[in-house]
Amino acid sequence: MYTQGLDQSDTRTPGPEEEAQLVQAFQARIDAEEKIEPRDWMPDAYRRTLVRQISQHAHSEIVGMLPEGNWITRAPSLKRKAILLAKVQDEAGHGLYLYSAAETLGTSRQQMVDQLLSGKAKYSSIFNYPTLNWADIGAIGWLVDGAAIMNQIPLCRCSYGPYSRAMVRVCKEESFHQRQGYEIMTVMARGTDAQRRMAQDALERWWWPSLMMFGPSDSDSAHTAQSMRWKIKRFTNDELRQKFVDVTVPQGHFLGLEFPDPELKLDEQTGHWNFGPIDWSEFKQVLEGNGPCNAERMRARQTAHQEGAWVRQALLAHAEKHEDIR
Ligand code: 3HC
Fold first, then answer.
1. Which tens digit of pLDDT belongs to each residue from 215-248?
2. pLDDT band at residue 323 under the 50/70/90 scheme
3. Predicted pLDDT at 15
4. Which of 124, 158, 227, 230 to mutate to test the pocket of ligand 1 (most atoms within 8 A of CB)?
5. What residues form DSSP beta bridges with 274?
6. For residue 256, which of 184, 185, 183 has the smallest C-alpha distance?
7. Which of 48, 50, 191, 253 is the most interior residue, by most CB within 10 Å?
8. Cα separations in angstroms, 205 against 26, 87, 138, 226, 321
9. 146 CB-contact burial (10 Å; exposed 0-12 / middle 13-18 / buried 19+)
10. Which amino acid residue places its CA nearest to atom 9 of ligand 1?
11. Coil, helix or strand at residue 106
12. Considering only CA atoms, which of 54, 67, 73 is closest in space to residue 116?
């Protein structure tokens, strides 16, 4: 969809003075809220930052299909199964838009997929946690997709055109995902005692990992300051985390659920919910590959890639045949 940027052929390297002028003009465009498009000049570091963020985002969508895909065969009714199937399929679509957006920056999908499969590329920490029961599907929609929307709505205003446009549709779909998750939680929280306990248990297991999705606190975030100057990010990690807590806590209380945080307290003056310290050592462990499901997720992606090899070969053979006929 966006691959027109791949065949850029401007290989001339500007001298230092010209480069400084280009950087200045580039920042002026950003400050004026102009979109940067694939063929426009951009600093190498801006390109690298975008490829890093967009490819990680794409991988998160693809790996994110696994914990929920696990429940498609066990959804409690045909209606729930159809909804879950559609949701998981949406996530695949999001991954594809995002790989396409990253391709406009000159990195092929093959390169990105290879980086994921070799363990070099990151994907969101949240998808390394297990889905133990049906309430987890509700909690994922409510909390994980809820956190994703909070992070992704501002990305619709990202300075890079293809990424910002891809995010518009992604956010519409994520918003539906969030609502279906909250609806599952509502049904369970108002159901039998056993169902209410499942909803409470799912909230307890998914709450802290959902807060970690927003990334390290601002003081430890390597990329936030520069990404804000480039208007790739519009809010810092801590700002988005606080917004998420502020909207989500009343939703949980409405369902009669309790958050697993004794320090959670409304600050009447600011209107914000104060929350307890995040266990960053757990976050670090998950990023280093030692979360509960990291190995399982990587194995599943590698197996899917190997088992899909014949499809890629068939498509290439078809394309070559088509080329011969023309
Ligand atoms: N999981 C894994 N890695 C994370 C992370 C997380 N939750 N949060 C931060 N990191 C990584 C960063 O990628 C970076 O690593 P790198 O230098 O190797 O790339 C490092 O930790 C330092 O973090 P920073 O805060 O400095 O990094 P960023 O400025 O890139 O901010 C981010 C992190 C907020 C996640 C940002 O990259 C972002 O907004 N990404 C786009 C959205 C996205 O990727 N969301 C993932 C979830 S998608 C999803 O949930 C699918 C949906 O269907 C539910």
1. 999 999 999 999 999 999 999 999 999 999 999 9
2. confident
3. 84
4. 124
5. 265
6. 185
7. 50
8. 44, 22, 12, 33, 52
9. buried
10. 215
11. coil
12. 54
Residues with a CB atom less than 6 Å from ligand 1: 52-53, 56-57, 60-61, 64, 91, 122, 124-125, 144-145, 148, 151, 212-216, 221-224, 227, 237, 287
At 2, the amino acid letter reads: Y
- 97: tokens are 């838009």
Number of helices followed by number of strands (H, E) in the chain: 14, 2
Residue 317 sits at the vertex; the CA angle it makes with 307 and 90, to the nearest 5 degrees, is 50
Distance CA 268, CA 255 (A): 22
Question: pTM higher than 0.85 for the full model?
Answer: yes
The whole-number pLDDT of residue 1 equals 43
Ligand 1 centroid to residue 90 C-alpha, Å = 20
Which tokens is 79 given?
A: 């209606």
pLDDT digits (tens, 9 = 90+) for 30-88: 999 999 999 999 999 999 999 999 999 999 999 999 999 989 999 999 999 999 999 99
Cβ-contact 140, 176 below 8 angstroms: no
